[in-house]
Amino acid sequence: MTRKIILSLLLGGLLSAATLYLAFRNVPLAELAAYMGSISYVWLIPSTALAVLTYLLRTLRWRLILQDTLAIGFWQAFHPLMIGFMMNCILPGRVGELARPAILKKERAVAFGTGLATVAAERVFDMIVLIGLFAAVFSTVSSRPDLDVAVGGLHLNSRTLQTAAWAMIRISVVLLLGLSALAFSAPRRWMIGLIEASVGMTIIAGPRLHAAVRRIGSALIGWLESFAKGLSLVGHPPRALACLALTMAIWTVGALSYYVFSLGCPGIDLTFWEMTTTMVIVCFFIALPSVPGFWGVWEAGGVFALALFGVNQRDAAGFTLVNHAVQLFPVILIGLISALVTSVNILHLSYRSKTGTQDLKLKGVM
Question: Where are the domains of the chain?
Fold first, then answer.
């Protein structure tokens, strides 16, 4: 187990280094270093504080989503959340999304499917707000159809961003439809009825096969029911609206973190709305399959976004690289502290998270 996690960390580190090199190979290192030396790093303090505040707001939102399943205190929710985000930063495959359900199952005896549903509900709220923000900033992007930025040998233009945006929109629609089918009792009963009917049809294939399929069907129905418990928020519109309001606050504070740090960066003279546009574009880039910590793709998105507002590539690269560190390293540090406070073994949890879906497959659920 330990060997697999170490290999995963090494592979993730190599991929991150490679993508970061590709993103910055057109920017002379001496110029990049000179620019980074000109940044007023005192602005790191309020910017980092705002970045951390977004995770405090995320904790409040997750507690609301969990309320019917498990009533837990703020810090009892905060530590698993930070451990999950920390693992997303250092391991490939966004395995941190599975870490929280694994912790809830181990520490609180909450079914893995139920915990996973609460994380999926969070992603739906995030996607709704991000898509709304993208619709608001789309005019900025479409106003520069001739824009073409070379990053790491790739040419990024408005079509690149539109492709990324549509990919995220399609994922959001599929996720929303799937969660809706499980959250509401009528489509869920129809799905369960279909499973039971399919199991019943196998009786003509013989008792052994029928018994095996019946076990698989029972496991699948159990998983659907446990997953649906994590979506109980659907039956409480006031809480759903509160989660939506918290989501809007999360992304507003996140954009403010970007903006505050830009105040100390020469050549980055953008308004709050322009910096919000930058953050949204970066988010659409990192929504694509990427390496741990989003190194390289984050920078590519940032350089492209800032080019919309006339920022040269050196200044954009320096700002994006340091701002990425501001957004990422506190999460890793706090996540490690949370793991120490809660005595969570990160290596063991990583293994459990990666094998969580494999266990479901072995049971015939997936």
Answer: 45-67+113-331
